[in-house]
Amino acid sequence: MSGRADEREAVPPETAAGAEPAPAPGRAPLAVAPGPLRVDDAELAACVSCGLCLPHCPTWRVTGAELLSPRGRIAAMRAVQWGGAELDGTFVRAMDTCVQCRGCEPACPSGVPFGRLMEGTREALAFGAGRGRGAYQPWWRRLGYEVLGRHRLLLAGSTALAVAQRLRLVPERVDRSLPRLSLRRPRLRRSNVTGEPVWLFTGCVMDAWQRDVHVATIAVLEAAGARVRLPGDPGCCGALHAHAGLRAGAERLARRVIAALPGDDPVLVSSAGCGAALKDYGHLLGTPEAERFARRVLDVHEWLAARADRLPPPVRPLAGPVAVQDPCHLRHVQRAHPSVRAVLAPYATLVELDDEGLCCGAGGTYSALQPDLAAGIRARKLEAIGRTGAAVVASANPGCALHLAAAGVDARHPMTLVAEAAGLPG
Amino acid sequence: MAQRYREPVTPPGPSTAAADPLVADLRRALAPDRVRTEDLELALYGRDASGIDAGGRAAVVCLPETTEEVAACVRAARAHGRPFVARGAGTGLAGGAVPVGEPVVIVTTRMTRILEVDPDERVAWVQPGVLNLDLTRHLATWDLHFAPDPSSQQACTIGGNVANNSGGPHCLRDGVTSAHVVALEVVLPDGSVTVLGALDPEPGGYDLRGAFVGSEGCLGIATRVAVRLTPNPPAVRTLLADFASVEDAAATVSAVIAAGIVPAALEMMDARITAAVEDYVGAGYPRDAAAVLLVELDGLPAGVEAHAAEVVRLATAHGARAVRVAADDAERALLWKGRKSAFGAVARILPDYYLHDTVVPRTRLVEVLRRVYQIAERHDLVVVNVFHAGDGNLHPLLLFDRRVPGVMDRVHAAGEEIVAASLEAGGVLSGEHGIGLEKKAYMDRLFGPDDLDAQARLREAFDPDGAANPDKVLPAGARCGDLQRAPEGAWI
Hints:
The complex is a heterodimer. By secondary structure, chain A is of the alpha/beta class.
């Protein structure tokens, strides 16, 4: 990845086609009657159907089906929005099978903001377009999303689940896709050292299931000169809600996160999916306060890569090569994946996957809701990992790590690897 | 191992395509989930990257995985009196995979296996759904590649390249697909399977391989392709020359070729498309240039250096404001990514495009380009030019928004004038995109009745009933007594 491309990628998404301040001559006024989908008409019009997105779409790669490709999904949205086509089961399946990895976005020369189109489409479905309100997101799914926003309940539930795992009470089909949860979670403590003040966003599932990553992250940040502050209870970032079309829930959670992380200090995130969501709060809420907040958000590797000279020395460099798996929301959305390499490089021999960052199939709740497709997508990732010959995979997103671990991959967070190689408590 | 994903299958019902007895036969031949019948899915296969809507739609869509399954699809279609259309990734620009009427659409996107690579003989057997760039990436182990590199390289299939005899920037020196296919296994329009061409250098008999490559799905469906592999060059230099006028850039093109240099690629982009591409790729393309040339030289290091110096000298002598040499592979890749994204980037200007693919003599480039700009201006349309300058293969893109009332009439009128201007200058209709639906009506401007009749006879020899991709390539009446239906809503 060259530096020049990164500079460009800092350009805000508002420069994408369709949002230009002055329309080019001959561009149609927005004369089309608004259809049922909550999408911007110019953004929907910006696809020229060239098909360059196809190879970057995991569901197209697995099925070869146009309906399960970004171009096909946009054509389906247009059929509904402009052509009056029915919001039938086929349409819902086309939308529901999308992992929302957004691998199609950097592949699109015209800059179609596919993630926004998909979220707006799902929002319309969740709100009851086409069918009853409960049909698209039934009560049990809504309940699950609700729990993510109630951290104490999530922690208690996770402990109960850990006990159930040990008592073999969890159905095998479900347990297969879960990690082995700990009965006890280490206590997190904010830094009592002096240094550059930063917030660490702790999140929901990650805090409940992978708190050891937070412990390692705090240790690495302190070693690099940070004074880490922890929010009281920021809870869930709302990414999964937004992806599911539950926008009101996402907005509510976003406001709570902003309130829990006041001031001007940088907000560091070690989960790529959450980081992408936090960086999008400006767009989600549309307030100056949210935009200011979004500008403070950095993936933890971005912050560390800018302070590479302060990283702790490698006292126990990792023995074998480490394959770097780019979480989609770090690579395609935040476009911050080079920083993971910059941070890891002193501690391990890094090897690249040869699949151009194709999704692993985790996709937040996707692996649970579309298990067959998720497994098919993961099979390609496993092959790519196999071709590297590396025994350890670094993944900066808890969902990807869990999904890969469920297939027997030794997937670890880069912060865990750095803490180990630097001999830090973690 | 992952569970095999299966798409949900619509059960047969009275009002759906699933009730068609043809569908029942296809489902017996293929796994049921690979025979698609839902309305929305069928509609999606009604178009390709050309944007041409011929008013047709797929009767049913099949996703076979083997030669036997393709043959079974063809036989089932024929048994039920249906025509069939082959489709790869749908990146075609001439509507070759767009259904006319209600044919069976046979999609090769699940035929993605690279079957065999012989690095010593420099030949690989691949299934038709293998993506062009996937193949080249796979061959990197042996320091080999597949030479044809259409701009849609990352998404287009080898089967599609065979059908359209596709080109690409690097075909200036290396030749188009026909020069890189040694043999083909094909399913003929009667459902039988045969092999055309052979791996030995002088196969006996007529060169039916040569007839099949570029036949746009009208002679059958390729199910295995033996492709010739090209060694990666030991040295590569990519130069970006920046001009204040299109004329200067075009003059440089002629001067380079006249100097006896045949670059690996020699591409031109005009001002507006260069700016749109730069917005996407950020490769450092000059936003204020009237035209840029992208010149790639490869071969032995000493020769490459000498030719690069000569190209810099010629460009400067013809008014180049600057010539930049890509410093490393990353910079080279970024420049090419920009050039190859040009068509896809046009929505940054306007959301729809219609392009032609005419080839004109290099010496007439300046004059034809000037006429193209005049034609667009007269019809109040935006035109951008991005093309294979080295071989005179123009790609004028007329940009518009189809939601603007009346714009399509202007686009069609301008397109026709552009074709006429190219033919008047001694050019031909298509360099590499194929004729498909789009240029069918222009065929009689280039070919006389005897030429068209000869082409129709060849087609008839393979497909006497006209079942394979009907209503494409040859205009109605190409053969005496042959009355083909004009596609409704066709663009031309």
